[in-house]
Structures
1.
Amino acid sequence: MRKRDIYLLNLILVLLGLALWSIMPIGTKLLGPNGLTLGLDLKGGSQLLYEADLSKKDPSVTGTEAMSAVVEKIQRRVNQYGTTEPVIQKQGPDRILVQLPGVEDISEAIALIGKTALLDFREQKFDENGSPVLDEEGNPVFENMTAKAKDKDDNEKELTGKYLNRAWQDVDPYKGPIVAFEWNSEGAYLFEQITRRNVGKLLAIYLDNELISHPVVEEVIPGGRGRIEGHFTLDEAEMLAIQLNSGSLDVPLTIIGQENVDPTLGADSIQKSKRAAIIGIILLLLFMLFYYRLPGFIACISLGIYGTFLLAIFTFFPITLTLSGIAGAILSLGMAVDANVLIFERMKEELRAGRTLGAAVEAGFNRAWTAIRDSNITTFIACGVLIWLGTSSAFHASMVSGFAITLFIGVALSMFTAIVITRTFLRLIVGSQLVTKPSLYGVKI
Amino acid sequence: MIDFVGKKQWFFLISLIAIVVAIISLVVFKLQPGLDFTGGTSMTINFIPKVEQSESPQVQSQLRQEMIRLGHPEAKIQFLKESRDFFVRTKFISPEKVNELRDNIEAAFHRDVEISVPLEVSPAIAEKTARNAGIAVGIAAIAMLIYIAWAFRRMPRPFRWGTCAVVALIHDVLIVVGIFSILGQLTGAEVNAMFITGLLTVVGYSINNTVVVFDRVRENISKHISPDFAVTVNCSLTETLARSLNTSLTTLCVILALLLFGGVTIHYFILVLFIGLIVGTYSSLCIAGPLLVIWEKGEWSKLLPFAKRPA
C-alpha cells in the first residue's frame, strides 16, 4: 500500500464530506439551503423575449447604453411587481429575455414590463383669436409637442416623466383610483412655470402618446405635486405608478417570443422522469455489479460519489437545471460509466494475458487513459461550441447551453472519478491482498 | 474473432440503403417543423363552461370559421379530450392581438373564453434558431475533425481518421433525422429545439465511440501486430467490442427507462437518443473503421458487394 494512495483516499473522503455537507437536508429542502435551482421548464413560469427598436433611441447614447438602461428599468418594474427570482437578460444587441418563474397569468406582466410609459404634458391649442381649437366632436385639441419651460439656468426643457421623484397609486373619494406624483426640484420648477402660463386653460397628460386626461389648471402649482385621473382600475393605477417610478423605457419594445409552462406539467414531468432515471440507474449498477464483479462494485461506489459531487456542484454554484440540463447530466453519467468500463475491460485483458493483479490494474488505467482523454476532449470541444453559440443566440439559448454546461461539468467530473477515485480504491484493495481470486475480477482462468 | 472488416461491403450496403431511404423520406415527407422553427403562436382556448365531448365537433367547425373570419385561415385546431380545451396553432400573433381575438370569440360564441399561450415565436427568431442549430452542428463537426486529426498526428495521414469519424457522425445524424421524418408522417412527431439538443447528444456519443475504437487501432499500429492494416483494424474492433457493447447497453438501460417511464415532455428527445445510440454504436463499429481501411488501401472500387472486382 503506497503512501500516495492513502493521501488520495483522505482527499476523496474530505471532498466527499464537503459535498455531503453542501447537499445535506436543511429544513424542508433536501439539497442544501437553496435546493437545486430549477429552470422555468421544470418549475413552471413564463418567459418573454423582447426586441428593442434601437432606431428610436436618443442619438446621444450608444445602443448598449440604451439597452442597459432598459434592462435596469425592467428589473425595477419586475421587482416592484413582486416576482421571486426573475431573470432579465440582454441577448444580442437588441433583445431582452425576461423570465418570471411561477407567474401564470402573463398578460398582466406583459402590460407592466413592455410599456414604454413615457409621461408628458401638452398645452392646449388656440387659434389666432385666442379661442380654443376644437375637433369635429367638439373636444379640445392639444399641441403636438411636449410642453417646455426654461429651467433655472435658462435652458429650455421638455417636461416629461424623467423629472419625477416618485409616483404612487391613491384613491380619490370622487374620482376613484388615481396616480399621484411628486416632481423633483427641477421638475417642480418647470411645472410651476407651465402651470403659471396655463391658469384657466387645459393641460393634457399623455402616456405613450395617448391622451390620459386634461384637467383644468385652476391655479399655479408650486411645490411640485400633481395627480393623474384616468378612469383607472386599482390594478392599472398600481401598475402605472410602478412604471412611472422605474422611469420610461429608453426605446420601445415589442414581444417576439413567449413561452409559458404550466407548473403542474413541469412537476409531473420531473416526477416521472426522476422515477425513470432511478430505475435506469439501478439497472445500470446491477449490470456493472454482475458483469465486472469486484471492480463493478467499486465502480458503483465511485459512481455514487460521482453523483454526490455532481449534485454538490449543481447546488453550490448554482447551476440552473433545465430538462435539457438533466439530459446532459444523464449523458455524462453514461460517459462516467464508460470510463470505468474502458478501464475494466483493459484490466481483464491484462489479467488474461497473465499479469499479476497489481500490474493489471496499473496497465488497465494507463492503457485506457488515451481513449478516455481523446474521447472526452472531443466531447469538451462539442460542449464548448454549444456553450459559445448558445449564449450568443436567442430564444432557446438556455436550453442548448444548459445541456452543454451540465455535460461539460459531468464529463470533467467523470474523468476525475475514473482516474482518481476508482483507481485509488482498486489500488488499495489490490494492495491490501484481501481479494486475490481472479474470478472476482470477472476473469476465468 | 468477428470479421468486421471482411463484411464491410455489406455494412456499407446496409448503411447506403438506410441513408437513401432517409434522404428520400426527407425529400418526400420532409420534417414536421415545430413552432421553434416556423414561428407562430400556439394557444389553448378554454370555453367557460367547458365544451362537452358531444358538442365538440360542432364547436370546432364553428371555431374554424370564426378563425377564418378573423383572418387566420392557417389556424390548426385540435380538441383536447382530457382538458376539453381547444389547442390552436396560428401564425405569429402579438399578445395584444390575442386579447382582441379572445373578445371576438367571446362575442361570437356568447360564452366566456380564456386563452393561454404556451408558446409563441416570431418568424425572425425561428429562422435564427434553425440557422444557429445548423451552424452549431457544422462548427462542432469541423472542430472535432481537427482535434481528431491532431490527436492521431503520429499516424500517417491523420486527416483521414478525422474525416472517417465525421462521416460516421453524419451517417448517424442523417439516419436519425430520416427516421424522424417518417415518424413525423406517421405520428406527427415534430422537430423542435429539444430535438436539436438530442441530435447534438447523438453526435457527441457517436464521436466518442469512434475515438475509442480509433485509439485502439492507433495502439495496435504502434505495437505492429500485423503488417495488414485491415487485420489491425479488425483486431482493434474485436478487442473494443466488449467495451462498445457494454457502454451502449448501460447507457441504453437509462435511456430505455426514461423512454418507457419518463415524462411526456421529453419523450421525443429520449427517442432521438435511443435511436441515435443504436445507430451510433453500429456506425463506430461497422462504418468508421472499415471506411478507414478502404481509404488507406485505396480500394474504393470494392466499396459495395456487387462492385466489379479488379481482375
2.
Amino acid sequence: MKIILLDYGAGNVTSVERALRRLGAEPQRSSSPECITKAEALILPGVGHYAALIRALDGRALRAPLLDAIRRGVPFLGVCLGLQALYETSEESPELLGLHLLPGSVHSLPATVKLPHMGWNQIKLTRPSRLLERISPGAFFYFAHSYGVTDAGGEAVALCNYGADFAAVIEKQNIFAVQFHPEKSGDAGAQLLKNFLRLAA
Amino acid sequence: MSLAHRIIPCLDTDGARVVKGVNFVGLRDAGDPAALAARYNAEGADELVVLDIAASRDRRPTFLETIRRVASELSIPLTAGGGIRSLDDARAVILAGADKVTINTAAVERPGLISELSREFGRQAVVLAIDAKRLNDHWDVMVRGGRESASLDALKWARMGAACGAGEILLTSVDRDGTQLGFDIPLTEAISRAVSVPVIASGGAKLPEHFAQVFSEGAADAALAASIFHDNMQSIRELKQYLATRNIEVRLPC
C-alpha cells in the first residue's frame, strides 16, 4: 500500500513517520502533487499555526490533488492541524480558507482554561467508531493545541472537553481525523494508527 | 474527564550521558539516556525532558545524536534544551526529534527569542524555563545554571514570557533544587496563578506526598524530577497510583 505522509515542514512529521514504521508500515514522505494523486492512503500531520499548514498546501499546489484524492475515496487521516484543515475557516487565521470538506469551523478554546490545552486527556464517544476499535473507553490521548472544532456535526465520533466540548475524533466515510497526537499517545495512539492502517488496507 | 496532571522525568546530560550532581559539582554518571528513556516510556511517564547541562558548542552534534536516540525510544512527547540561543539551534533540536524546546538564559538576554520560536514552531513547542530564588519579599530570576541573578522579578518575567508566546513554563526553585525537601509550594502557586499557560514545577521532589502537594496546593499542571526516578527511589507507576488514591487526576495504564 502506498501511504503518503504529507511533508510540508510540520514539526511532527518525523514522529508520525516513526510511529507508523514501528507498526510495520512504510510511509513515504512527500510534498508533490503527483505523489498525492498516486496515493492509496494519505496522512496529513501538523502542529503549530493553522496558517502555516494552509499556506503550505497552497504554496505547493497540494490543495487540488488533496481534495480530489479525498473525494475519490482515498483513506485520509488528519492529525491535529490536519483535522482543523478539513473545515472552512479557523479563528486563528480568519482570512485563510480551509479545505471545507466538513460543516463547522475552528474556534479558540475559551480563555477560562489555561491554553494551550497541553497534556493527556480523555475523550467521550458519541457513536461507535472504527478508528477507536480495541481502545479502552478510559484511554488518555496527548493534546497540544489552543483551537478546536466546537460546532462539529455528526462526523465527530468522539468529543473532548476542555473549557468547551470540541471534536476529538472525526469519521466520515474515508475521512478520519484526530485533534490529539496519536504518534505521542503511547499504546492507545499506536492502536489508533494501527486501526487506520487496517481500514486503509 | 479532565486533563491529567503530568509526571515528567528529566535527563540532565553532559551531551552524551546522563549525569548527576549538585550545582555542576561532582558530576557522576547516571546511565545511558536512551535506555532510561525507554524505561520511563514503559513505566508511564507522561513526557520526557532531556537537557544538555554543559551546552558547549563543540559537544552540540553529540547532544543532537542523543536526542535522536532518545526520541526513537519514545511514544510520548519529548522536550529538549540547554544552550538554545537562536532559531537555528531550536530547529536542529526539533529536527532531531524533540516536540518542544526549552529556553532559559538566552530568553532573559533577548526576550524576542520567545516570539521568534513561537511564530516558527507554534507556542505549544516553546517552554520557558525559569530558575527562581527567594529574595526578600519576591522571587528573583537566576540565569547561567542558577548561579547569577538576572535582577528580574520571576512573576513579572513569567507573565511577560507567556505574553511573548511561551506555551508553558518550566519553573525550578533554586532554593529547593537538590534538597529533596519538597517542591516550593508558594512559588509554584504564585506563578501558576499569575499566568494562563501550564506550569511544570521542578526542584526538591522526593516523596509521593510532595507531588500531591504541588498539584493540589501549588496548582501545578505537571511536575518534574530527575534523580529520584534514576535511582529507583520512586517508581513512576507507583507514584501515579498513589496520586490517584488522593483523587488527583493522572493517566494510569488501562
